[in-house]
Write a structure and sequence with these properties.
Largest sheet: 5 strands, parallel
Shape: globular
CATH superfamily: Response regulator
Strand order of the largest sheet: 2-1-3-4-5
Number of helices: 5
Radius of gyration: 13 Å
Strand content: 15-25%
Number of domains: 1
Length: 125
């Protein structure tokens, strides 16, 4: 059964590739996406039960992914927040976890791990 994914990514090419990857390989349905922190936070607050996994880039057109991750603090227990960023430093990983991210993956080197994580979420769903 596909799980509902919300994607926060401002690069249209990366976003399109991620949507295809998630829907074709990870058995996900991308229900919506945002390019800015404000747009993402607004959507998440108005669709509290409309997603299972939020995949969030840290650097956005406006604002940043940390604000999006923080806005997900009061999510349901089954909902997962994943940071997917090219800036996979120890500091960025720790800051994301401190704000409530369930996982953090390097956009350029850990796509396979993201897929494995998504499969485990789907299996638990």
């Amino acid at each position: 059964m596909p799980f509902k994914t919300y994607l926060v990514e401002d690069n249209p090419v990366i976003r399109e590739n991620l949507v295809g990857f998630l829907e074709d390989v990870a058995d996900a349905t991308v229900v919506a996406h945002a390019s800015t922190e404000a747009e993402a936070v607004t959507w998440l607050r108005s669709h509290r039960d409309g997603w299972d996994v939020a995949i969030v880039d840290l650097f956005l057109e406006q604002g940043n992914g940390f604000g999006v991750v923080d806005a997900c603090r009061n999510r349901s227990k089954h909902q997962k927040v994943v940071v997917l960023s090219n800036y996979a430093t120890a500091d960025m990983r720790e800051r994301s976890r401190a704000l409530g991210a369930d996982a953090f993956f390097d956009k350029s080197a850990e796509i396979d791990q993201l897929l494995e994580y998504c499969e485990s979420v789907r299996d638990d769903h």
